[in-house]
Amino acid sequence: MNDPRKVEPPDNPHLGKQVDQLLSKYVGNPQSPQPEEVRQMAAEFLVWRRELEAKIREQRDIQKQLETYRDRYVDLYDFAPLGYVTLDEEGYIQEINLAGARLLGGEVAELVGYPLADYVLALDRAAFLEHLQKCCSEQQEVTSELGLIAKDGRLVVVQLRTVPVKAMEHEGIFCKTAIADITDRKRAEEAIQEERNLLRTLIDNLPDPIYVKDTQGRFVAVNLAAARITGATTPSDLLGKTDYDFYPVEVAAEYFRDEQEIMRSGKPLVNKDEPHLDRQGDRRTVLTTKVPLKDSRGTVVGLVGISRDITERKQVEETLQSQRQFLEAVLASIEAGIVACDANGVLTLFNRATREFHGLPQEPLLAEQWADHYDLYLPDGKTRMRTEEVPLFRALQGEHLHNVEMVIVPKNGPARTILASGQPLYDTAGQKTGAVVAMHDITERKQPEKAASRG
Predict the structure, then answer these.
(1) CA distance 363 to 347
(2) Fewer CB atoms < 10 Å away: N or C end of the chain?
């Protein structure tokens, strides 16, 4: 109990007046108790009064705090970013905050007392009523997503989270519901899903196998081509499996080593020829590119690979290489000189005989330099050829030449009389790609003619 001497004077004048009247009733009354008893009684009254006044002040303080908390709650409720609405068991609005009213496009006063179902998209209305019924009957929190039509006609996609609350006034149930506007999120999700569908359609219709693996080498995503190349019926047949489930150990081990190094180093593997066995067991060659796959924090979580079957191309390349080697052998063996240039007039071919004629190696010279560098002369052996007279240049201009006589006078060798024949070269589209000339040394054949002319 508090010390009465420290208690402030009473704030309630009516209570103090009643106590004073009670005390005066006994003071001066012959039949009243003795003064000592009165003093004791008065002291008890004073203590009781002061305790009562203290309690009254405490209750006033509590009342003020409650009013403060109530105001804060009202502010939080009204100005919360989420919509909050209290519904009865029939779905009629009992309370709604400002955010909820904005979602519905109306004012608080005009919404209270009306069914929320009036604002639910017609297609979702049955789901909303089921949402309420489940909350009330099962007495548990229920979450649903549905569409609302605001008064201005806007479609708002929302998430409802409803909890049942026992009403104090009667036996009914109130449904406290938080309404979150998820329109933007749903649009983003739909856009992402559309992109995924587009990407899925794209990769499934690509002829090249595309696949994603985790850090253990397990397939986590593949396209139809990847399923076909491994002999699987559908892409889902590959999920969770590794190359060891489809290829010989030595082939799968090479794949695994390469992929572990890619994920360890973070560096891609680009255009590597890899062996592959098709579903018939025939050996094929694929050109593979694999790049590390990273999460949002930059951590490598797997890899993405794409392969292309280049078996036929490799066979063509090998055939061409064989033919090229054969042609080079032929060009090196024949006694005729063969020289060629590209469409820009740059020399691209000088066989062995041509190098011997000139006593010089092949150099990528332009047409304007040919006559001077390679000592090309007219049949008299004294007049240097102009560029437009050089047989290879004439062939490049579109002429078909046959046995055009010319003389090569090398700086470190004997002069040679040459008959040159040539023509332009074209690709399959009819575009000029260069020219070629064949040169035959007729020096010995010309010597008797020179001797006769001298005699």
Answers:
(1) 7
(2) C
Topology of 334-454 in CATH?
Beta-Lactamase (3.30.450)
Sheet with 416-426, strands from edge to edge, namely 347-350, 337-342, 432-441, 416-426, 401-408, 376-377
Q: What is the pTM of this model?
A: 0.51
Please give the CATH number for the structural domain made up of 210-314: 3.30.450.20
Q: For the segment 385-402, what is each residue's pLDDT rounded down to a tens digit? A: 999 999 999 999 999 999
Tell me what the mean pLDDT of segment 351-377 comes to.
90
DSSP 26-62: HTT-TTSPPHHHHHHHHHHHHHHHHHHHHHHHHHHHH
Which position has the higher pLDDT, 49 or 414? 414
Distance between CA atoms of 45 and 365, rounded to whole angstroms?
128
Give the 3-state secondary structure of residue 162: strand
The token pair that represents 312 in the structure block? 């036929």
Which residues are registered as beta bridge partners of 303?
Answer: 213, 292
Residue with tokens 């008299």: 380
End-to-end CA distance of the chain: 159
pLDDT tens digits for range 136-166: 888 899 999 999 999 999 999 999 999 998 8
Q: Which DSSP state fits 92?
A: B
Give the DSSP letter of residue 209.
-
Name residues whose C-beta falls within 8 Å of residue 421's C-beta, 6 or more positions apart in sequence.
Answer: 391, 401, 402, 403, 404, 437, 438
